[in-house]
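Two quick folds needed for the group meeting slides. Do the first one here.
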Amino acid sequence: MEKAQARYKRAFDKRVQARREAPRVGDWVFEKSHENQGVRLVFEKLGPYQILKTEGRRLTIESDDGIRTINGNHATRTPDQPKGDPARARALAAWQVPSLPSSASKPIEAVFDHFVGQGYDEHERLMLKVRWFRYGPREDSWHYVEDLPAENVRKNCMQHRLTVRRRASNN
């Protein structure tokens, strides 16, 4: 009986210990989600998303909807992937954003937050002014839509009724 109790205790402690480790900035997590489909409740994991900021059990992540805060109870850590994993490489490439220029020798790494303006260049190509996460209006920068996250550009263009293609000339 003591052997069985000791085995159950070890298994329980493993589960509890894994749960107690708080996620840190830079860790990758899946977001637990659920959806009603008729009479069934369907569970799924969204992500992986990288943690940008933590405040206790609240996690700030960048998802397809932009930067948002979720409850840490709705997130699970991603298993450690080997360095050469193509799925992880695709996820990292999807979140890449341009670097901001800085006065220092190396550029500032920035994460997309939201759009604050739109306009066209001299060749009538659509450009959007980007506000970067944790940066103020002084660091806002103009970028062509091709260089920005596609889903965010699509939503912004639909909201402001913008066309990505060149505008017709008035001549």
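Then this one, please, same format:
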Amino acid sequence: MLSAIRNTSAALALAAVAAGCGVSKDKYEAAVNEADKYKKEYADESQRAKDCEQKLATAGTKVQGLEQTTAAQQAQMDDYKTMNAALTQENAANLVELAQLSGLVTIRVPEKLLFAPGSAAITKQGKVGLKKIAAAMKSVSGRVFYVAGNTDNKPIKTRQFPSNWELSTARALAVIHFCIAEGVDPRVLGAAGYAQYHPIASNDSADGRARNRRIDIGIAAPPQDLPTAKQ
């Protein structure tokens, strides 16, 4: 780039001298053309330098993104190992299931373990299972737990639960309150009810509907640790 600048300056000086000394029109135009050529070379080299800077910045962003992805994947592996070790017996007995939901390690608990049909009151058996889950949650640091209630597509209409929205949300909150009573920090908990709209199986069979009636507890990084988009 420096050579292009020097050549451009020299060509411009030559053109200026040629213009002031009464040289021929051909020599003058040749000097101007040479100056234009070097100006273009300078512009081209400036653009190439900008392109290189942009490529370096893009490469740096990709490296940072890969580092974040690798760290997130390692965190997910750690979450899975921790929960699998804490809930080995329950997992083996099909009382709970460790799954991936939207990229999160998720503890999936069927309705039959926790609730009677159409109820959001945790059963005695459910409390035994949730005690183990709450203990496992307390053993994990630096993570948050999102508790989501899900139902099948059979409608419900009672005074307490006018629809599956109320039922699924009430069940999620029941799990939240139980976990808090077991010593889980409320600041790492969140609740949501999805009614029948997040099925994991077909609602056309009794078995599929049973799979859809569940509580999902997703394990994630705290919101403040999530990467943010640059403004």
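Slide caption for protein two: The radius of gyration is 33 Å.
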